[in-house]
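Ticket #4471: structure output looks truncated?

Reporter: J.K.
Steps to reproduce: submitted the chain below (110 residues) through the standard prediction queue, then opened the result file.
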Amino acid sequence: MASLSSPLRVCRGILKELRTIQGPSYKQSLAYNYVIDQFRKNKVTGERYCRAQQEAHHASLTYLCLLTSTRNHLALYNLYHGKGERSPEEVAGLVGLRLPTQPGGKGWEK
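Returned output as attached by the reporter:
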């Protein structure tokens, strides 16, 4: 099994993602309070609760991965998402081409 990073690092990572999502008022959110409570509850346990502590740590790593992946997905989606229907002139300009013009001037081209 791969070694897990420290619980403090995971907690800080989750709080960083919450701050990115919710802005400067993230400390008043329910998610912030829940994360802090869960990390305090599973902070130090005895030997017979060791498995529960590892499960909580693994769940927090999974949640951090979810938050990070969601943020990255939204950034990529906004970057590469289609802009809707484009005119033929605009599409030709995207690939570096120009549409041919009608010789003789029929009056309909600009």
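Triage note (M.O.): checked the attachment and the full token line is present. Residues 7-42+51-95 form one domain.
Status: closed, working as intended.
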